[in-house]
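Preliminary data (for renewal application), D-xylonic acid complex.
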Amino acid sequence: MNNWLKRLAAGVILPGILLLSACGSAQNESATTDGIQERTIKAGIGNSKMHPQGQGMVKFKELLEEKSGGKMKVQNFFDATLGDDQKMTEALQGGLQEVTVPSTSPLVGMIKEFGIYDFPFVFNNEEEAYSVLDGAIGKKLLDKLPEHDLVGLGYWENGFRNLTNSKHPVVTADDFKGLKIRTMQNEVHLDAFSKLGANPSPMAFSEVFTALETGTVDGQENPLATIQTQKYNEVQDYLSLTKHVYTPFVFLVSKKFWDDLSEEEQKIMSEAAQEAGEYQRALNRKENEKALKYLKEEGMKINEVKPEEMAKMKEVIQPVTDKFAQKFGPDLVEEMMTEVEKVRGN
Ligand code: TK8
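Predicted structure:
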């Protein structure tokens, strides 16, 4: 190279390189001094923003953005706009979406043990469910997620499910007979409703309203807040407070995304999911009560189910529960029942 070219190179290119690397290191420094980088988290759920699950996501966004000094941003998608529970879970596995909070029930095809939560009439109240979910059993099941490219940051609450339908009140075990009922995509639910003489058909959540409206099915079952926010009362006359099963939500993160996070980022994300979960559970209980009042005012014909009738329903379903206990692990089921008994003080 001749001299003037060298001088030109030194004068133009070198400062350019210095400038670039200065920028680079300045950026890295700001990104790593607190171990938190600029990130955008795509989070999707099936329910609406008004549902306690939606409000939980709004809280999660607030908390994570606050804890990360505004660097970790959450983009929330409601109403299954990113797909239903199964589809979003697969998107997490593929690294196409970062967060979803599905019911555990549609995950049973992937991790069969989650099916123990689908046994009808196991929990009498939320506290009993929390002791199982937040204790050793809940953790054991969350620990199965990473081998499926998922990370579980704890359980939120979908809650106790109640039956709605367009035909008649369900007061006794016999009243299920002949009803076409939409169930979640879950073999325990399918078999349990079949055993009661109903005609169950598994279906993704976002298809339920139309299926009820067009009469493809006669009924569906979900917690009260969902019945309200999905406006099922507009297409269903009867609401029977069967409380036949408690469904947890599980807070899932894509493992691909998770593994890329620093320790600090993982810590604040866990905290945000946990704290938002506590908020969501409390809100859920409150909103379920309010929903009952609302649905009554809207003219749904609502009936309680007597404890002895619930006991009968449970008895009819027992062979199904026994069969699946063998499949999911009798020890695990026993551990769950022992935990429930402990909370009951027995
Ligand atoms: C929302 C679902 C829903 C569930 C169902 O994504 O499918 O009926 O109860 O709330 O998880």
